[in-house]
Write a structure and sequence with these properties.
The structure is a homodimer of 94-residue chains. With 94 residues, chain A is an alpha+beta fold. Chain A is built from five helices and three strands. The structure holds a DNA duplex (30 and 30 nucleotides).
DNA sequence: CGCTTTATTGCAATATTGTGCAATAAAGCA
DNA sequence: TGCTTTATTGCACAATATTGCAATAAAGCG
């Protein structure tokens, strides 16, 4: 498997904002307009972060009226987050 | 746990070169001068990538004479790589 | 010491990323 | 249709990352 594809996925996780988004979506579907106040960022910025996550295949969306609801695209994503958290923890411990 | 720390670790994985390095180190300890021809990059570049991985807590080193041997710093790292590979795969499949 | 090998750092050029404002689009409702 | 809400895109600016060359450092050997 190509390292570039793997790095693509990792790159999507390489931003505190996007990690935060994934963690919020672990709790369930959210629309962009709910994320905006939680993240304290301009709607355009949130939209772009979601686009990055979507291009990496980590989130999916569906429209509901004027809103677009976002969700994790795979049950493996929480696993990946736990993995990263563990390693970040080990590092902290040092 | 702070999203910044998690993103730090992910950022270290967000480069094809560094993913490649981790995969090579999965097979066992290697010194920088072994990695250079495998990666086809300038020694200075390899050194900097190793420094990034080290700062993220993903690799550790020990000196042996004039060489510095690098190894994965945790058995969880292969797990993390498999996780990322799976997600990269799922995305490819789409 | 001088020489070789390996690794790191200073520097500059280039590329990529993150951000916010403004403009635009897409859906629903009166 | 016009208005509101939500989302996206164009643009510019600032910050970061990646790379390679050159210089320097660190270790061992004759």
């Amino acid at each position: 498997m190509d390292e570039r594809h793997i790095a693509e996925v990792a790159k999507a996780l390489a931003s505190p904002v996007r990690v935060r988004i994934l963690r919020i979506l672990e709790e369930g579907e959210r629309c962009g307009c709910e994320l905006v106040p939680l993240l304290g960022l301009d709607p355009s910025v949130v939209s772009r972060h979601l686009a990055v996550l979507s291009r990496a295949g980590l989130v999916e969306s569906r429209r509901e009226g004027v809103r677009i609801l976002w969700r994790l695209s795979s049950p493996e994503i929480p696993l990946l987050l736990r993995c990263l958290e563990n390693l970040a923890c080990e590092k902290e411990a040092v």
